C-alpha cells in the first residue's frame, strides 16, 4: 500500500481537520488498508491487534459514509442509530466512543456509549434524543432492546471490535440475538487480534464476502515491543518485581496478574514498598476503575495492576512497559497484554516473570507467536521478612524441581478484595461481570456528546 497521507484516502475536510488536530500525519497500515475497503462498501475481516490504530480504521470510513446523513434537526427521528459498534468491555467502549467524538468533532454526527454496571435509566434519555453512532457492550445493549429504548432497524454499519475477546467472554449468544435484530442490508466489519478457527467461523456466519486484511502476521506480537522472560520462583516474584520497578526508568508500568486477589494483594504490597500502585479489576466498581485509570494516565499512579478482563482495551499513550507478574494460561491473552505497550509505532518493553509451574504456558505462548522469547534466570535480592532458604544473600532461579510455594501469613491476603467505602459515594455496591448484568446499580458515568459543526 503506497498511501502516504489521509487526504489520499478520500476523507472529507471536516474529518481531515480533526485528524490534523489530533496530530495524525500518516495513516497506520491497518487504516491505509481498511479505509478504502469500507468506503467502497465491502464487509471486512481485519486481523489487527490493539495499538495498530484499528479504531480509526473503522471509525473514519463510517463517519465518511454517514456524513451525508448528518442532520442539524433536533427531531430524534432524524438521528436513528446508523452505526453500531459492539465491544467486549466497558473500558474499550469508553475509549472507542472517545475516538468517535474526537474524529467527529467537526461534523453533526452524534454518538453515545452504553455499558452495564451503571443505572440504565440514566442512559435512556440520551438514547431517546437520537444518536447516529452507538458504542455498546452486548449485555447492556440487549437490556435497552428489551426496554424498547433503542431501535436497531436502521443500522447500516455493524462493527465487532475485539471479536476474539467477545467470544472468549461468552458473548456469542448475545451477539446472535443482536445480529438478528439488524437489517440484512448492512455493512459489517470485524476486528480481531487473533485469527482462531472460532473467529473464522464467526466471520463466515456474520460477514458477506468479506475482504480480508491482516496488518501483522497472524497472532504476531508487535515488533517494536522488546520481550523478555525472567525465570523466577513464584515466591520471589514480588521481590523481583520491586527490583525491576526500581531499576526501570519507565514512568508508567502496567502489571498483569491472573486473578483479582493477586492484583489486590500485589497493589497493597507495592504500596507498602513505597510505589504509587493501584489495582484495576473486575471486583472494582466502574467508578473506581475509571478513577484508577485516570490516576494512572495522569501519572499519579505509576504502577497499575490488572487482570486480563479489566485491562482489556486500555489505551494509554506511550505506555512504556508491561510486566506479566503471572503469564496467562491462554496464549492469546499474552498477545493482548503486551499490545498495551508499543502502540502506534512507539517502542515498548514486555517483561514476564515465569515460575517453573508456568513454563508450560510459556511454551504455548512461544508456539503461538512463533518465536522464542529471550530468557534470563532472575537474581533476586533476599527480602528481610522472609526466612532465607540458604546462606547466600542473593539467590537465582534453579530449574526444576520447583521449590514449595510459600504462603503469606498476612490474613489480609486471604480476604477477597473489598473496595473502600469512599469509592461508593452513593452507598452502592461494586458491580462487575463479563456480560454486564449489574447486581445492583450505581449512578451512571455516561458519556454523551454531540459534535459541534
Ligand atoms: P488503537 O489501535 O485504535 O487502539 O490505537 C492506538 C493508538 O494510536 C491510539 O492512541 C490512537 O490515538 C493512536 N493513533 C491511531 N491512528 C494514528 C495515526 N494515524 N497516527 C498517530 N497516532 C494514531
Question: Would you kindly provide a written description of the structure presented here, covering whatever features stand out?
Answer:
It is a single chain. The protein has 453 residues and is α/β, with parallel strands linked by helices. It has 2 domains: 209 residues, 3-Layer(aba) Sandwich (Rossmann fold), CATH 3.40.50.300; 153 residues, P-loop containing nucleotide triphosphate hydrolases (Rossmann fold). The chain is built from 15 helices and 17 strands. The strands form 3 sheets. Strands 7-1-6-5-2-4-3-17 form an 8-stranded mixed β-sheet, sandwiched between helices. Strands 10-11-9-12-13-8-14 form a 7-stranded parallel β-sheet, with helices on both faces. A two-stranded antiparallel ribbon has the order 15-16. Bound molecules: adenosine monophosphate.
Low-pLDDT windows of residues:
384-453
Report the biggest beta sheet as strand number plus sense, adding barrel if it closes.
8 strands, mixed
How many distinct beta strands?
Answer: 17
Approximate shape: globular
Query: Tell me, what is the CATH class of the largest domain?
Result: Alpha Beta
Order of strands in the sheet with most strands: 7-1-6-5-2-4-3-17
> What class would the helix/strand composition place it in?
alpha/beta
Number of helices: 15
Assembly type:
single chain
The CATH architecture of the largest domain comes to 3-Layer(aba) Sandwich
| Helical content class | 25-40%
According to CATH, the homologous superfamily of the largest domain is P-loop containing nucleotide triphosphate hydrolases
Radius of gyration from the alpha-carbon trace, in angstroms:
23 Å
Strand composition percent: 15-25%
Determine the mean pLDDT. Answer: 80
Bound molecules: adenosine monophosphate
